[in-house]
Every structure is written in structure tokens, then in C-alpha cells.
Amino acid sequence: MSVMQADTQEYDVIIVGSGAGGGMSAYVLTIAGLKVLMLEAGRDYDPVKETPMFNWPKDAPLRDAGTPDRPFGFYNATVDGGWQVPGEPYSQASSDPKQQFSWWRARMMGGRTNHWGRISLRNGPYDFKPYSRDGLGFDWPVSYEDIAPYYDKTEMLVGVYGETGHNLENTPDSPAGILQPPPKPRAYELLAKKACNEMDIPVIPGHLAILTKRQDHKVLPKKLFPNNPLGQKVTADSMQARAACFWATHCGRGCSIKAAFQSTTVLIPPALATGNLNIISNAMVREVTLNAAGKADGVIYIDKTSRQERKVKGRAVVVAASAAETSRIFLNSRSSLFPDGIANSSGLVGKYLMDSVGGGVTGQIPALEGLPPMNEDGSSGHHLYQPWWLYKEQKAGKLNFAKGYHIEMSGGRTMPGAGVFGGLESFTDGAYGKDYKDACRRYYGTFVHFAGRGSMIPNEDSFCEIDSDRVDQWGIPILKFHWKWSDHETNMVAHMHKTFAEIIEQMGGKVTSTIHSDGSKAISNGGSIIHEIGGTIMGADRGKSVLNQYCQSWDVPNLFVTDGAPFPSKADKNPTLTIMALAWRTSDYIVEQFKQRAI
Amino acid sequence: MSNSTTNLHRRQTLKLLGAAAASAPLLGFSASSAAVQAKTKGAEVIFSPTDPDLLNPVVHWSMKLTQQELEELAVLVDVIIPADDQSPAASSLGAPGFINEWVSAPYPQQERDLVLVRGGIVWLNAEARKRFNQSFRQLNAMQREQICDDICLESRAKPEHRYGARFFAKVRDLAATAFYTTTEGMADIGYIGNRPMQTFEGPSDEVLRMLKLKS
């Protein structure tokens, strides 16, 4: 059997994972001139060639309905993934669904960035210091001011639409000139805005990583890499290859014109163009290896094609495999120095797993009936959203939960797909025949859904560990999940339900889903929002955290994490933008360590 | 499966076994594993349902409903979505074929729906015979309505009609999916998206005035 060239070369950095964190790390490190090897557990994937742009549900099996094989529908940009990956099981400590964690994975180049919702919100100052504010959760060892320059750079690079100048509490404005122009709101979004404003709920343009105009490839690369001609060139070329959104076909399928951000179109191509990046796909990493000096010296992976174990060597290792997968790799990296897993002297690897708190309510809005046909595809994501607004009431002790949530709206005249008009009979007294056709005409586009996405407080009962009895088809010990919501999260969901019902009524509509006053009946299952974070948390105290403020292992100084695993607390804000900003900062630090010959 | 196909299948298997025997000792292989090995040459992936070609979709399962069931479903979906001056009837846009694709799919939800739909067709004919001594498709429009009125809303259905109501709701939802995802169905309700545009202009002044968002 021939040994791959990659097996013998020693790289400066080995990166495990190719998604938001791995992609960003590869981009920054290769531009700085480091020789990088990226390992991806899934297959190679090219959104330009593979994205089903404009394809109709009628041409897909089951009209694009979700199935266990294709959970978000046939056209969704997920390869060999979903809540289950064939041959790669995980287990649950509890049989109660509310104490389980649903683990979404995608085995493909670019990972989950290919299908994600592109919502790109900055954490606010409170989100970095939650414990200091109310005594709950853990403070990050960095502040908003530390991360803000990296938010600026990340937004310039990936292209985020939104609007600045709202000056809302804990909802940072980007500096002027960074965001892409926001799209005009849809009809139902304007109706909701009017109702929310009457209720003193702010409604502002959403922040999504979608280009609404082409990027300025002459100015932005110079701002991002002032003294680096290579960085400017590969970034300018990459920006020129991206088109602006043309307001059609859903971002969840991926974007062949590269308007919507994906690691595979925005981060990996310029990294490859530096000439400093090699990628091995179908490489399922099992463990980080340690040398006699107690430093990481490479990783062992299973080449999925040959089913053979291989080792690659690097002077530093960056793990960005997704929060739980990163925890799994650490826990499976056992040595005499680290019998409980690499970098685990704190015993905290796998601990404090978090997800966003999710709850939702749907309503039917009579004011939207009888409107002329109009195209509401837009960016496919929301154009307006409601940031959390009750900071003062919370401080005054008027709420029965800590932290907060923002609201993501959807609805209107979306493309009819599988399940269209499902459940309409409850509106129409069981209509069929001519009455049913008339009802479909009347009610199409008149439903609006409000989804809350809230902050979860890290707790001792939500974690993953190695299930010592079982391995996956690659011979790698699997994870067992433990999960528990606290009253803060369930009370938050009850508040969502009550509030969303009030908004719908304020819009003159009626609620069509069940409203729960007991949030534990309405809260989404752990993991199901796919905002998986924690597991190797960062902190200021090495006894209480796995990583320092540069996402560098306290125990193994040339080992880093750049996915969501370092997050010590969960803001209501969706994590991807912060993953990328932190990964950029960590990568800058790694470059600095190489310059100082500390690695 | 008829006897003749079974025999043919057996002959093919024997032939494959013969081919396998030429290159590998038969001992230790069961008949089926040898046949599979001869067919796939080891770990070659023929089709991966978790990684299909998204640009060239195929339905990778065989259909389970009979021709007669499809014809009976055609009658029912046209009662639910009949032709009118704006669009054709559900059966003319392939709704029975879609229902067949749906209930034949190898997934738990669809396997439950197969039982509901197949059993429902039998239930509907039995109900028609009970009331009118004819199968459902032989009834006139008024007779069909008389049955459908009793099963068109589960929350209102009498206990003896509840299964029929669940069946009716399932067929109505599947017929709607089949119908309103077609070009004709989307035109009927006024979906005009999925086409590239230079700009997204948002709602027109006319719409804003109708919504009282502009005077």
C-alpha cells in the first residue's frame, strides 16, 4: 500500500475540521505563510458543481420532504449527515427525550457551513461577562472589546448584511462601512414590526452572511491584511469570484454563486490559493498524539477509503471538529501523561455542553389574505429580527429567568413544498372540493412563525463522555450524552410562547399552534437548534477551564481549539460569527507563537 | 410474487453461485452472501441514500400500491381537489402517483402512512358498500359527499368514522403536496418566486396600502 505524501511531511499546523472554525484557521494561518494540513472526516464537496439551484420540489423524491436519510429535505446541503450518521452512532444516558442531546453532523468539506442559516450576530458585552452581570454562567477570559476587531474583520471578509446605528443594549452595532446593505423587509415582516413596536419590542434588520452587493475587492483585502500582499491577493481574487444575492433559491441548499457564505466558497479557496494548504478528505480523526516532551506532535486518523489508520505530524494542532466531536477526540487521546484524555488535567473536557434555547409559535394573519401575488423569496433568511429587549425588566427582577432570547421570523409566500397546507382543515372546518381549493388560495402566504433563540446557562448535568462499551465503524469509541435544562431555560420558553401569542394577536391574527405556559413542555430538545458549543471551555483559571483566552490548551501549549467548544457560556446570539472571530484571533496568536519560536 | 418469478430468481441465484464457485471456494458462504458478493465485487457503493446526486434525483424504492388502489385514490383526490376554472383536478397532475411514491418509501413515517392509506381505501369501499351497496368509485357525486362529509374533520367525526377521517386527512394533505408543488398548482395560489432578480424591492405601494402601512 502506498503511503500518501502527507503522511511523511511535517506540517507547521494540522487542522482537524473544515467548517467555520477550521476554514477560518486555515485561511489565516496559510496567509501568514505557515504550512497547513487540513483533515476533513467527510468527502470533498464543491458547491459550484453540486448545488441544486432553482430545482423544484416536484423533481425531488417525496417533493423534498425530510427523511431519516435527508432530515432537512432532499436538496439540503448535507452529505452523509443529519441527526444520525451511518456507522457513527452515539448514545444517551437517559431515555427521557428532554434529557437527551440530538447531535447533528455533516460529513463533508465545509461541514455545517454549507447549509446553515447564515445568521451572524455579534455577542454583546454582557454575553462575554454573564457571571459578572447576574452570577450565572461563566465569564469569558476575553471582553467584547477584545473580540470586536475580529468581528469587524470577519464581517468584512464573509460579507454580512445588516444595519448599524441602532444603539440597543447588548446588541452591538458594527462600525460604519462594514456591513452589507440590508434587504427591504417583506410584507409580513413590516406587519410584525408595526405590532412589535406597539408593544415596545424593537425590530431591526437581521444580520445574515449573504452578499447583497459585490464586495469591494480593491479596498477590503488591504484593510484585512495591510502588510501582506499574499493575503491581499488571494482575498481579492476570492471576493471577485463571489456574486451578489439574486433573491432566489434557498441558502440551505448551498450557494453556487457564492453570495451566501460557506467555508467551501469563502475560506478554503483563498487558503488553497496561498499554496500553503493541503487537504485530506475522508480522514476521520481519532486522537491527537503526544511526544515525550508533552507536546502534541500530530494526529492519528482513519482513512475512510482504505479503512487504514494513518498518522500525520505537525508542530501545532488545531482541533475544530465541532464542539462534541472535538471533546470526543480529546477524550480519546489517552496517554500516560493524560490518562483521561489530552489537555484534561481539569477534568472538564466534554463538560458544559450547550445549545440555544428554542421555542416557536405560528399564527395566521387575516390582514395578509387577499393580497396580489408577490415574490417574497428575498434572501431566504429573515430580513428583520427582534433582538432581546427586556434587560431593564430583568435587572429589576420582573422576569422568572435570566439572560434572554431574540426572535427569528419566517412565513409569507414561501415556495410550496412537501407538507404545504398540512393541517389546514382546522381552519376550514374540514373543507374539501371547491371549498378546499378556495381555502388554499385564501390562506396561502398568511402564516407567520416566530422562533425564539435564547441563552442557555452552562450546567453540570449537560455534558458528553466516552461510552466505554462501544465504538463506531472506524473503531473509535463513541460519545454518550447527558442533558438537562434548568428552570431558567424552560421559563424562558414559556415567556416566548406568551409573547409570540401576543404579537400575533397584536397583528390581528390568531395562534395556530399550541401555547404552553409550562416551558418544559415546549422547549426544543438539546442539540436540536444545532448551536452546539462548550466541551473544552476557555477561562482565566486553569483549574476551571480547558483553554486559555487564546483557545490554547493550558496543559499542552501547542494544542488549540477553534470551533464552538471553547465557548464558556451561551449567548442568545447564534454562534458561527463568534466561532470565526475567535478562530481568527487564535490563529493570529498561533502565528505570533511561531514567530517567537514558542512553538 | 408469482411462482414463475420466484423460479427465475432462484435460477439467477444459482447461476451467480456458479460464477462465484469458479473463483472462490463455496464452503463457508451462504447462498445469499455469495450472490451479493458476485454482484457487488466487495465493498463497492452502488447508491448512498445519505449522499445522492442532488442534480439527478432518483426515487430509489419500488412502488407498493396496485393499479386498482391508484385508480381508487384518483377518484378520492379529485373529490378533494377537483378541476375548476383556475386549475385542473389533482389526479390529472399525478397526485395518485405521488401518494404511491410517498407510502412506498422505506422510512418509519411513510411505512405508517402506507398502512393508513391502504387500510383507508378498503375502509372507504366498505363504507360505500354499507351505505349504497357499491364501491366508492361507483357512487355518484352526492353519495360520495355524504361519506366525505362524515370523515372530512377528525375532531368532529363519530367514533366509527374516526379511522376514515384520519385516512381522509392524510390523503388530503398528500394530494395538496402533490398538487401545489406542480407548475399549475403554484400558479393557482400565486407563488411567483424562484427566479433570479437584480434587486429585491419588497412589497408594492399597493400592498402597503392594503396592509394600512402606507396612506
From TrEMBL, chain A:
Q: Which InterPro entries match?
A: FAD/NAD-bd_sf (IPR036188), GMC_OxRdtase_N (IPR000172), GMC_OxRtase_C (IPR007867), P2Ox-like (IPR051473)
Q: Does the keyword Oxidoreductase apply?
A: yes
The reply on keyword Oxidoreductase is: yes
Record keywords, A-Z: FAD, Flavoprotein, Oxidoreductase
| Location of the Glucose-methanol-choline oxidoreductase N-terminal domain | 28-333
User: Which residue range or ranges hold the Glucose-methanol-choline oxidoreductase C-terminal domain?
Assistant: 461-583
* Assigned protein family: Belongs to the GMC oxidoreductase family.
User: What protein name does the entry list?
Assistant: GMC family oxidoreductase
Q: Which organism was this protein described from? A: Alkalimonas collagenimarina
From TrEMBL, chain B:
EC number(s) on file: 1.-.-.-
The protein in question is named: Gluconate 2-dehydrogenase subunit 3 family protein
The source's superkingdom equals Bacteria
Q: Where is the signal peptide?
A: 1-34
Q: Does the keyword Oxidoreductase apply?
A: yes
**Pfam families in alphabetical order:** Gluconate_2-dh3
Which organism's genome codes for this protein?
Answer: Alkalimonas collagenimarina
GO MF terms held by the record: oxidoreductase activity
Q: Which UniProt keywords apply?
A: Oxidoreductase, Signal
